[in-house]
Write a structure and sequence with these properties.
This protein has eleven helices and twelve strands. The chain is an alpha/beta fold. It is elongated and about 110 Å long. The protein binds adenosine-5'-triphosphate and magnesium ion (MG). The site of magnesium ion has 5 residues, from helix 9.
Length: about 400
Amino acid sequence: MSGSTRPDPLATSGPARTADTAPANVLVVDDKEIVRNFLCEVLELAGHRVTVVETGRDALDVCHKGQVQVLVTDLRMEPMSGQELIRRLKAHSPSTVPIVLTGYGSVERTVELMRLGAFDVLTKPCRATEILATVEKALAHHEALDANQDLRTRLEAQEGKRQQIQEKLAMIGKLAAGVAHELNNPLDATLRCVRLTKDRVKDDPEASEYLDLAHAGLLRMADIVQSLLTFSREAAVEQAPQPLDELVGEAITGVALALDTAAPRMRQDIDTIVAGVHVPRGLHQVVTNLLRNAADACEGEGTITVTGRLVDDEILLEVTDLGPGIAEDVLPRVFEPFFTTKDPGKGTGLGLPISARLVEKFGGAMSIECPASGGTIVTVALPAERYGADLVQEAS
Ligand SMILES: Nc1ncnc2c1ncn2[C@@H]1O[C@H](COP(=O)(O)OP(=O)(O)OP(=O)(O)O)[C@@H](O)[C@H]1O
Ligand SMILES: [Mg+2]
């Protein structure tokens, strides 16, 4: 091996390499020099980076300092046994995978070591191929552990972010509710005054026109105040039960009337099995919001369909439009309060968050997707059991 840039393990006395050699992939600990050197050579020849030490304490030091993926340890060592080493390793470097190499193997001992966290127990004398195969498996296991840890760290970060957003939303909600509360009464009074004045200036077309504009503006403001109150959970939610098909029918008629000539075709296709299910009346506002969004998206073109069906233990209500869909970077934001892509005065960005909150109140969940074939599907999933337990039995 002379001339090679790798250190010659056979040429060293005592530890072939020291704890300062970092980073180590495989750490060998054995109190017998001949074993250390043999293992070091075998592992290095297979291309692994190897650190060797004499005692369990040194091994722990190396593990604490750097990233040791696999530890190959002797069992009978002084002052710290291989067993004790594994126990401590599991507490401080849980992703290091330990392999035990012992001259004193027994089934009981192997079971005990595995229970402690040993990945495998090999009995000396041991062939190089067997050692290498076990180390390879242990490295793969380490990789899997690492990937798992990575995923867990990412999930924790995401959860932290989600909590931050929730706290922010709660603050916005409180603020909005406060403002809306304060606006509610003066707004009501102003609307009443405008209505009264309109009656008095019937004969003045110009004044009437101005008052009509003021009236429309005030109604829009009242609408926004109502949305803010609903969003901040200040408004009472209509819980009175109403058959699903009737509720959807009323929402379609309401949106068609409001949009008048700009209304696209809207139809409902509700399975008979769920048509008569009594859902809370507050769902009307949800369906209305979704129909309005769909109508805005398809600009009067195509057909908007509301379907209702039973899938497993859920009533699925879907509003499908054939509009342009939602861009990939916009999609994750549509449930954010005040997020809108519409022109000022056209949207407050509260329709979807309010709907999601209402659906949540009814024990369900909302989702939105844009299939590759085009358009948008918004799904409201309600727990079937809550709104018609007999319906689940009927279906099965
Ligand atoms: N069916 C749909 N097709 C395309 N985009 C949609 C659809 N539904 C929602 N969106 C997008 O999601 C955004 C948020 O919708 P949301 O209903 O919360 O607010 P808005 O419609 O903009 O305003 P508001 O409902 O308060 O009047 C919309 O601005 C739009 O970009
Ligand atoms: Mg909307």
